[in-house]
Amino acid sequence: MNRKRFWAALFVFSLIGQIAWVVENMYFNVFIYNMFRASQSDIALMVQASAVAATLTTLFIGALSDRLGKRKAFITVGYILWGVSILCFAALRVDWIAALFPAAAQDLTKAMSIGVALVIVFDCVMTFFGSTANDACFNAWLTDSTDETNRGKAEGVNAMMPLMAILVVFGGTMWADVENPAHWTILFLIIGGIVLLSGILGFFLIDETGKREPSPDGYFRTLFYGFRPHVMRTNAKLYLSLLLFTVFGISIQVFMPYLILYYQVTLELPQYVLIMAPAIILAAVATAFYGRLYDRFGYQKTLLPALLVLLLGYAILYLFRAVPLVFIGSLLMMCGYLCGMAVFGARIRDCTPEGMAGRFQGLRIIGQVLIPGVIGPEIGKLVLRNAETVPNSDGTVSFIPNENIFLWAGIVLLPIIAFVVIRLVLNRKAEPHA
Question: Mind listing the pLDDT tens digit for each residue in 54-97?
């Protein structure tokens, strides 16, 4: 494999894929909140539906890519269709919905409800193409293309991309008016176009990995391979890592759907990007270097510091609202989150049986997306069930997220920290007898 093209493909497809996911995971919530006055339940339902769509897609397409022994076609065509699906969001506007649905033209509440429903449906369609291209096949390709000598380094680059994507999207939208439908139309056209073009670029950048051979098993045997008891027993370390990763993801999803709304509405920081940009840059640099520490010190010794930093970030964001302390808390939260993602990502790739990355991507997405995406927002919704509300100019009301989302995110994180500490203590006690 051409190493220059490998690193170029890793950078392009990881970054652009994460830009698309940032728009979905962080800006769809803002979009549906501001354009269609979505409630806590609406936002939770959107995240949950998308999580289910991502999981089913990754299970079926990951197994299919293993069965066919192909990754490149799924990645390139998938990114093109992913871009097209994002372009479709440009059509979701209250005035256009009212024109298409006569009953909604005379009833603002009905128009808003139709808008919420369409956003959720479009989100699931977009997630299908995104998970095909990125979750199932790009991640399997990355596992195939790395080994024990460079996996931490590659995962460090891969894990810093969500923060880089946040910086790109935040920077590109910092002066935008989120109450203006035209802003959203332009955003979706730009992001959709970029994702589409990256798919075309993939035909020239991506090398099909040489180790990939079509699976001799039937499709459904490949699909359900990771759920067999003997496979679980044989790969116990992989499944334990996935379990811890799942709890980590639940913690993140308690607050993440409401993070931008918390900055904008609760803290009243319309230009929060000016505060967040330095934190994002510093966290991205830290994550890139942290992946190298995994290659040197291993899984448990690099996981615990990341979890403790994340917990400290939660504590500061829960306790304080002063801008300097919000900056520090956000920096620590982002560093802990992304470094934790890098460690878990490298560990899961290390524990994945060689040549079977596609059929295990479904299990990864269950731990990373499905369970956290269902349980995390549900916890967040319960935490915010009695949240204060604010009236809007059109007569509707919107909820105000509060700091309790960080408190409960920290509570969810505690069992993982306790488990890792116990394992480190037991391993240290066993060392003299080894």
Answer: 889 988 888 888 778 788 999 999 999 999 999 999 989 888 88
- Report whether 167 contacts 284 (CB < 8 A): yes
What's the CA gap between 410 and 173, in Å, rounded?
30
Tell me how many degrees the CA angle 196-198-200 measures, rounded to the nearest 5. 80
Structure tokens that stand for 211 in this block: 């180790």
**Do 41 and 33 form a contact (C-beta atoms < 8 A)?**
no
Q: What distance in Å separates the CA atoms of residue 195 and residue 165, rounded to the nearest whole number?
A: 13
Runs of H (alpha helix) within 352-403? 357-365, 371-383
**Helix and strand element counts for the chain (H, E):** 20, 2
Beta bridge partners of 390: 398
Residue type, 296: R
Domains of the chain, first to last: 3-208+217-433 (1.20.1250.20)
Q: How far apart are CA 268 and CA 96, in angstroms?
A: 30
* CA angle, residues 417, 305, 298, in degrees to nearest 5: 95
* Predicted model pTM: 0.74
